[in-house]
Amino acid sequence: MKKKMYIFGLAGMLSLVGITPAFAGSSVPEIETLKQQMQQIIQENQNLRSRVSQLEEERQKVGEATISDKVLEDKIHKVYEQRMEDEDFAHKINKYVEFSGLIEVEASAADDFEGADSSGFELATVELGFDAQVTDWAKGHVLVLYEEGGDDDVVIDEGYITLGNTEKFPLYLNAGRLYVPFGNFETNMISDPLTLEIAETQETALQVGFEAAGAYGSVFAFNGDTNEGGGDSQIEQFGANIGYTLEQEGFSVDVGMSYMNSIGDSDGLSGILEEEDMLEVDYVGGIGAYVIAHIGPVELIGEYITALDDFDDADDSQPMAFNAEAGYTFDIKGMESTVAVAYQGTDDMAGNLPESRILASFGIGIFEGTTLAFEYAHDEDYDEADGGTDESADTFTAQLAYEF
Predict the structure, then answer these.
(1) CATH 1.10.3300.10 fits 170-403, yes or no
(2) What string of DSSP letters covers 29-89?
(3) Domain residue ranges in the chain
(4) E strands within 147-201?
(5) What is the CA radius of gyration of the chain?
(6) For 368-395, what is each residue's pLDDT tens digit?
(7) Which of 71, 123, 209, 219 minimizes the number of CB atoms within 10 Å of its CB?
């Protein structure tokens, strides 16, 4: 810019030098004409200076705008890269992790064996399940559970690793916190069957199993709550199950049986043994058998579980439970509905479970994943001579469940 100003200034001086000699021999009109020309040149010079200054300012602004655009472009690029990374992470989550859940809200009214009435609302169950599988040969499973009542805690109900792929090879291994395959406990009712109450067993265990051509089975081992003779705490509890599933058009059947060398380690019986200070008694084995058949819209369930010996020689306590159930599925204006009835019973469980139970239920899928169900249960207690009250109890339950 300075060089251009010097040029214009020099041009102006030369103009003045060029016209100076002319003043000596010129007339007044000519001098006036020259003065006007000089003023015009000076004005044009000033206009040029002003235009140059304006152009310089515009060039500077363009340069600043170019720098700002570059910074903005870099920021946009970084945001885009971050978004792509987030989308890639979300894609991997959706690809490798399956999320599921269950929410059950219940309303109930009941009278117990003592004649006391009760009613209320309850957030019966909240389950959140996570199944992650990055490769075809290994996967992880976590189930978070909340059940209202008791300690009212949120717990890790299941958490285990599976090695294997039964679609390509029949053997698999489960290791972690799981429910060992002792019993089946299938039901259409809202309440758990009495077979579950005496046999369900949750442990940190190792399980090796197989699935092939409809046949399945496994063996498992764990260190339970009972400890025969009060010796060292070791892995001494074990069991096995075996079954077969046949599926044809309009018909299917699943039959199986299971064994555990210490039925006293089930969740229900171990609590009773602990209360009676009997966790160090001899191990008592247990056995279970079940059949589940579907014939068109009809479902038939039968299950029997029993201890193989007495826990206490003094009172010949040998717990047993069974469940016999029938269900029928049909549509009501496009909504899948199921009506079911069941008869259940126990032996040597006075003071803990009823001697017999009759149930009826009805459930309807009001929306996708949403079920409304109703259940009526009538319990008969043991005779007084057997340690019961010889009374009856009734419970009515309504449940709204959402599964996803």
Answers:
(1) no
(2) HHHHHHHHHHHHHHHHHHHHHHHHHHHHHHHHHHHHHHHHHHHHHHHHHHHHHHHHHHHHH
(3) 2-88, 170-403
(4) 154-164, 171-179
(5) 43
(6) 999 999 999 999 999 999 999 999 999 9
(7) 71
Average pLDDT along the chain, 404 residues, taken 10 residues at a time: 42 41 50 74 76 71 57 72 69 85 99 97 98 96 93 93 98 99 98 98 99 98 94 94 98 99 97 91 97 99 98 81 99 98 98 98 98 99 96 99 98
Structure tokens given for 29: 């009109």
Distance CA 351, CA 204 (A): 29
How crowded is residue 319: how many other Cβ atoms within 10 Å of its Cβ? 26
User: Which tokens sit at 20?
Assistant: 């100076």
Instruction: Identify whether the C-beta of residue 273 lies closer than 8 Å to the C-beta of residue 264.
Output: yes
Q: Helices then strands (H, E): number in the chain?
A: 4, 16
- Please name the helix (run of DSSP H) or strand (run of DSSP E) that holds residue 138, with its range, or none: strand 138-146
pTM: 0.78
Three-class SS state of 213? coil
Dihedral of alpha carbons 34, 40, 43, 49, sign:
negative
